[in-house]
Please model this.
Amino acid sequence: MNRNLFAVACCAALSGCAALERLPIPPASATPPPRVEEMDATHAAPPTPVPPDADPSSPAFVEERAQQAYETGRLDVAEGYYLQLIRLKPREATPWFRLGNLYAEQGRLDSAERAYREALRRRDDAKTLHNLGLVQVKLGVGALREAQKRLPPDESARRETREFLRVLLEAVEQ
Model:
């Protein structure tokens, strides 16, 4: 009974997810992966243009550079700028949220989870919670796959793990 309840809950959770950019669901799925949500304009305004002679240590300058690096795929540079922005604006949720997206895109799921939690500590936001949930599902699937590999073939937990994975992957394919 508990297994069926778990399967139904997982199916419901996965069917309501939006897509997560560059954070693929396990390869067994041929469907598009869930997508990381971006904050909309009501939550975070785009960086304001910074004049060429702007102070490189100003939050506006750092935020613009972080966004430029992120948009051009220079994620290592963007990460450095987001970390600097977090130091400059410690009470803001947006840099943590964007850092979480960056980590999720790189597959650094533990770091993404921590960043989303920090963003939520600063502002309760549905999109941040959504992205946190997607990262946690991905971590859970990975843990179940690893458990299945490590458990002895005759272990009942291995059969249950296989069943959980099957149900999760079927839910993603629907």
In short: The helical segments are 2-15, 59-71, 75-88, 94-106, 109-122, 126-150, 156-173. The chain has one domain: 2-173. Confidence is low (pLDDT under 50) at residues 11-32. DSSP finds seven helices and no strands in the chain.
